[in-house]
UniProtKB/TrEMBL annotation:
Family (UniProt): Belongs to the peroxidase family. Ascorbate peroxidase subfamily.
Annotated PANTHER family: OS06G0521900 PROTEIN, PEROXIDASE 72-RELATED
Organism listed in the record: Lolium multiflorum (Italian ryegrass)
Pfam families: peroxidase
Protein name from the UniProt record: Peroxidase
Predominant cellular place of this UniProt entry's protein: secreted
Amino acid sequence: MVATSRISSWVAPALLLFVALAHTTDADHLYVGYYAKSCPNVERVVSSVMANRVGSGRMAPAVLRLFFHDCFVNGCDASVLLDATPFSESEKDAKPNASLTGFTVIDEIKAALEKECPATVSCADVLALASRDAVTLLGGPTWNMPLGRKDSRFAADKEFTTKHLPSPNDNLGELIKMFGELGLDARDMTALSGAHTVGMANCEHYRERVYGTSDTEYNIDPSFAEARRKMCPPQGYSGDAGKAPFDIQTPRKFDNAYYRDLIVHQGLLNSDQALYSSGGVDSLVERYGADGDAFGRDFAKAMVKMGNILPRKGLPTEVRLHCSKANY
């Protein structure tokens, strides 16, 4: 019995690892109901943890932001969740990702799913579902999320990561180009930018806008700029903790107030206000600001479209057993 127990204790995790590694080929397509047989309760598990851990608090925008920062760098492959190793850098260490949080929520969901259906649900799909639930928990729309993503075994390096994430001072042309390279058009870009109706930005990201020191300047409401300056010291002064909400009206509600802020020149970042400055997508901003349902519909469609960005063919993928590290 002792010998049998020892063998069993070794074989069980080995089999799980084999199953996970057996799913290393890139998915040709994603579809709703991907786990209908292999893990039918996957969405219930994700929603339960999200409701218990996140609710309508600040962690919901953090989880949503993780999904964006993952998909923009080599596709939606959960590479943003990987820790650094002696052989690979971590996307977490790139400057635009320095303030990312929400990793523990994803880890908790993954642990629950490993008990429910071991070595089955990818971390990339966990992140996709969790981001949708984050929006819903904040009062936003919901949608059917196609599933079947696989997890990258390697993260991008810090330079590549930084290059492929939007900057707080990007102009409209740069934003349209960056989104376009991912197969997302100007409507998708404008709708997805509405994710900034929740969450906050650090002082370093909006300082240049409120002090008028950026090379990319857009009209800003003077009283809005003055209020933000009280929270954010000028460059060179000690202290940089002045977080400010993107949407000053309803910062913890997923609605269309972000667009109404832009119309009155109260966008927090230059890259926000860029959407309402040159006429390029002004009409979309005005439409979303006037019609929250239209924004919700377009946002949901754009989230599905962004979520369909897969890693390049040939990149090694798997279903990770732990989201922060490859299986071996």
